[in-house]
Amino acid sequence: MRLKRTAARLVMAWLIVSCLLACKPRGENAPAAPVRFRPAPPALVEDRVGSEADLAVTEEEIAAARKRLDGGLVGIISCTMANEYHYQAADSAQKALAGFGLRAQIIDPEARSDKQIAAIENLTAAGARAIVICVLDPRVVGAALKEAANKGVYIVQYAGVESAVNGIGVSIDDGDLGRAAGEYAAKLINDELGGKAVAAILDYPDLPNTVFRANMIEAALIQSAPGAEIAGRYLGGTQQNALTSVENALQARPDINVVVSINDAGAYGAYQALAAAGKDPKKTIIVAIDGEKKARELIREGGMYRGTVDTGPARTGQLAAQGVVKILAGSAVPKQIKVPVRVITKADLTEK
Questions:
Q1: Which of 146, 254, 321, 341 makes the best surface tag, with the fewest CB within 10 Å?
Q2: Do the domains spanning 44-171+313-339 and 174-310 agree at the CATH topology level?
Q3: d(Cα 321, Cα 74) in Å, to the nearest integer?
Q4: What is the pLDDT of residues 143-164, one digit of tens each?
């Protein structure tokens, strides 16, 4: 009996000691439970549209951003890396972030919204503290971005502003792009064609932003070259679309001698169609938007391709990276940053 009581006491003592060891407070060397990064909301200025000057960063802000990131990740989700604009924007953002000492990773969704959603979710799960993104479809991707923002991820959107939850939008304004293209085409019509012309506008109705560009092109032509006739708006967006559209348009209106396109890709098709129709390069005008390398080469040659509006992909990526720094550093920054536009002409490309 005595042995049984002794054994029972020993078991009880062992249980007490085990409990004390297991339940004792954590010491300094005990591993802490993982704590998710929960930054403060960004300090956003929403009563005005900002400019590139608002994103100038200081050495103190760069140091603060590095400390805040603390080895974490900045994700960059492009719309696609197969397009010159989007490749340059994403690549420029990554290089700029690396220059600031911030680790960044580019993900190519291959122009698929479902892959953008997966990328947002994976980056959030991996502990990304900011995501720089070109949003393909705000209606599809918006919920995933809001969920990431609710978990403390900052969102910096480029090529748009409507999905910049918990962050900022850095974008060229489509209205500015269309207006610049239309005004330059109108100037050429007035200066070289005596104010008289028959113009075709290349549109892409599937995307609201390109429709807005086309609207502004048309408004600028009407206002600045009132003597020009607008033959119509035709499907562009891709080289093949525009080639077919302009070939058909010339059957009905062989007097078309001006084409203004919402992008360079469509303008290449118009160039093919006009050249095949035997149009005089000195009396035919093409103006487009994007500032692509091929467009610059055609402009430099001095033919009918007369100008392209630079959408500034490299500058956009740089500014998006600076926006990440400003937000991580806790600096106040406008919710919307407008990237400046400029028209590239032969004079800009001629070696001096």
A1: 254
A2: yes
A3: 9
A4: 999 999 999 999 999 988 889 9
